[in-house]
Write a structure and sequence with these properties.
This protein is α/β, with parallel strands linked by helices and 255 residues long. Helix content is 44%, strand content 13%. The chain is built from ten helices and eight strands. The strands form two sheets. Strands 2-3-1-4-8 form a five-stranded parallel sheet, with helices on both faces. It has a three-stranded antiparallel sheet with strand order 6-5-7. The longest helix is centred in the last third of the chain and has 18 residues. The protein starts with 34 loop residues before the first strand and ends in a 5-residue tail after the last helix. The structure holds adenosine-5'-diphosphate (ADP) and zinc ion.
């Protein structure tokens, strides 16, 4: 395994955007409502698409570790080059690196005040345990399991195309309006470097081994809600908001 920086060394340049000055002594647990959501689900389940919508609905930042690492890769730093190796092989980036990056993002003002929707993190039990400790005593409000069968995700991933600039997802079945140019930002819409067959199979295997156990882990803490990810994006979004609102209501969390 290639070497990597520990969490204590700070975030590698380019991973997070410019941030507001923070009080180093501030703790995330002093904050109130908004929503603290985690989304779980296989590659291709539609997490990215749905998170953009949920972030708008609940007015919380969408924190995608995949997007953060893809941005780092574009910066062509030493860190980006190493991250790219892991990603293109479908391997997980080492826990300490990911945890350091996420922790720094969670300390920013918007997240502290409003909460977040985490997409792609946690992905291992160690990441989940660390996240819960960091957010103690409240922890996350809910972990959502977006359920889609393996056969369907394989089909979706093969057709997935993404805007290189803003990250909007398209597919061969739902192309941009004009050629392969992003409807929103004009960027090039391409296949992701890690959407090769080998990397997809590796990621799905790692999902089963390392991430699927988190479903039981959150269930045991009564923080899990499972939502069917089949159907149109709009159908899935309304299923998600209904399920989330019901659980938030039960738990007395209102944003
Ligand atoms: P997908 O869900 O299709 O695998 P993501 O965009 O979430 O795509 O992640 C892309 C890659 O970024 C992963 O394959 C992995 O290499 C890296 N990555 C993202 N999040 C994590 C994480 N929490 N832990 C380890 N590696 C991660
Ligand atoms: Zn775009």
């Amino acid at each position: 395994m290639p070497g990597h920086r520990g969490a204590g060394g700070g975030t590698p340049a380019g991973v997070t955007a410019a941030r507001a000055p923070i009080d180093k002594g501030a703790r995330v647990d002093v904050v109130v409502p908004g929503a603290r959501l985690v989304i779980l689900g296989k590659q291709g389940a539609g997490k990215g698409t749905q998170c953009v919508r949920l972030a708008r609905h609940y007015v919380v930042p969408h924190i995608s570790t995949g997007d953060m690492f893809r941005a780092a890769v574009k910066m062509v730093t030493e860190f980006g080059r190493r991250a790219e190796e892991y990603m293109n092989a479908g391997e997980l980036i080492p826990d300490e690196v990911v945890i350091g990056v996420v922790r720094e993002r969670l300390e920013q003002d918007d997240t502290v005040r409003r909460g977040f929707i985490l997409d792609g993190f946690p992905r291992t039990v160690h990441q989940a345990v660390t996240l819960t400790a960091f957010l103690a005593p409240r922890g996350v409000d809910l972990a959502i399991d977006l359920e889609v069968g393996t056969e369907m995700v394989l089909r979706r991933l093969a057709g997935r195309r993404v805007c290189q600039t803003c990250g909007t997802n398209y597919s061969v079945a739902a192309k941009p309006k004009h050629g392969w140019t992003c409807d929103y930002c004009g960027g090039d819409v391409v296949q992701r470097d890690d959407d090769t067959e080998a990397a997809i199979l590796r990621r799905l295997k790692l999902y089963e081994e390392q991430t699927a156990p988190l479903i039981t882990w959150y269930l045991e803490q009564d923080r899990l809600v499972a939502v069917d990810g089949m159907g149109s994006p709009d159908e899935v979004t309304s299923r998600l908001t209904r399920a989330i609102d019901r659980r938030r209501h039960e738990r007395g969390l209102h944003g």
